[in-house]
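Bump. Still looking for Putative 3-methyladenine DNA glycosylase C-alpha cells.
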Amino acid sequence: MAPISNTSPPRLGKPLKRAFFGRSVHEVAPDLIGATMLVDGVGGIIVEVEAYHHTDPAAHSYRGPTQRNQVMFGPPGFAYVYRSYGIHWCVNFVCEEEGSASAVLIRALEPTHGLAAMRRRRHLQDVYALCSGPGKLTEALGITIAHNALPLDRPPIALHARIEDVEVATGIRIGITKAVELPWRYGVRGSKFLSKPFPK
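Sorry for the wait, here they are.
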C-alpha cells in the first residue's frame, strides 16, 4: 500500500453502493480492507474491521431488536453508530438481507484525507495514532449518533473500493467476552495503523 502523502491524497476507487453490503458479513468484511471511508471528505483507508453475525453472542443484535440496535435489522448499506462504554462512538456497516442484523465494525483507518481536521479533532499530531481504534477514528472523522442510520452511499458518507491488492490478515476479535475464539477480525497485514498487530 502506498505511503501517506502530505501533498495530495491517493486516488480513489469506484464508489461502493448499498448493494455491496447485501452479502454475507464474512464476505463484506475482508472486502472492506483497503477501501476508503470518507465523512465530509475526511477519512482514509480501512485497515482493520470486525464482523458480527446475528447468530454471534457478541453481536448487539443477538437478543433481538432494541431502540439502540434497530438499524441493524433494516436493509443493508446503512451506518449503525453506538456509544461504547459510555465514552466513545463506534461505527458499523449493516450487511446481509433486511432482518439479518449483521454488521461490520470499522476498527482502524490509515489517514489519507483531511489530516488537519483529524489532528484538530483528536488534539494530536501522530498520524499513526489518529485512527488506530474504533473510538479514535470516529472522533477523527467527526462521527456521532447523528450519523446513525445514514446511508453509506450518500453524503456525508462516501466509500470507495480498494484500487490495489492487499494482504488480508485474520484473527480473533478484540475487547469482547463472548465468542472470543471466532477469527472474525480482518486487517492489512503489517500495517502501522492497526489498533493491535495481528499474530505472525
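Helices lie at 25-32, 115-122, 134-141.

Edit: fixed formatting.
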